[in-house]
Write a structure and sequence with these properties.
The chain is of the alpha+beta class and about 220 residues long. It contains 4 helices and 12 strands; from the N terminus they run H-E-E-H-H-E-E-E-E-E-E-E-E-E-H-E. This is DUF1007 family protein.
């Protein structure tokens, strides 16, 4: 999806448009119990090289620039992206039978580096205990599209029951065509920021559907 920034800034009729500034390779682990109920979701984020460099420099970590953190440095880095403002959904939307699934704030944060990239994970508990994992849908996205999430890391299910995981990737070309058509309707001096940038993040999000048997 990193090619999107080129298309959005070079190929659209006006230069002011929402496009990603941070790219995150994402992984999801759905944790279910013996009754096929979802109890937790573990989220993994691997930040792009440039953003990782900015964070490490700002926090004065990896001073020898070998891309490997010491145990003390990992401890300092852990939780840097888990200090969420009230109401932030973690850029993860879950629904069960079209009913929103409410998740806790991040727990058990972890952080390290892989080839110079920051990789973090956190655990989120289903509020209220659990929900049936049948007809469960999950999407990782930033609705403003400032951050682009790509589900390139493993998507797994952990628990005593077998579950079916299905992946539905977005129609990138179709979404770009719709965005271009919308922009062509605007005057050249139209200020998207003053008039609300279209919230397009979900349009480019991969959907994961989970089906676990009731027991």
């Amino acid at each position: 999806m990193r090619w999107l920034i080129t298309l959005l800034t070079c190929c659209l009729p006006i230069p002011v448009m929402a496009h990603p500034h941070v790219f995150i390779d994402t992984g999801l682990e759905f944790i279910v119990d013996e009754a096929g109920q979802l109890t937790h979701v573990r989220v993994t984020w691997a930040y792009d090289e440039f953003y990782s460099l900015l964070v490490l420099e700002d926090m004065k970590l990896d001073q020898d620039a070998d891309g490997i953190l010491t145990t003390a440095e990992e401890s300092r880095l852990t939780g840097f992206d888990a200090q969420w403002v009230e109401g932030y959904n973690g850029d993860l939307v879950l629904t069960a039978g079209d009913v929103p699934v409410v998740l806790s704030r991040p727990q058990e944060p972890r952080a390290t580096t892989e080839d110079g990239r920051i990789v973090t994970s956190h655990l989120r508990k289903v509020e209220g205990g659990s929900v049936p994992a049948n007809a469960l849908s999950a999407k990782a996205f930033d609705e403003t599209f400032y951050t682009a999430y790509e589900l390139t890391r493993p998507v797994t299910v952990s628990g005593p029951v077998s579950c079916l995981v299905e992946r539905f990737d977005p129609d990138i070309d179709g979404q770009l065509a719709q965005m271009q058509a919308f922009l062509r309707t605007l005057d050249a001096d139209y200020d998207l920021e003053e008039n609300d940038i279209p919230l397009v993040g979900e349009n480019f999000a991969t959907e994961i559907r989970l089906s676990c048997p009731d027991t």
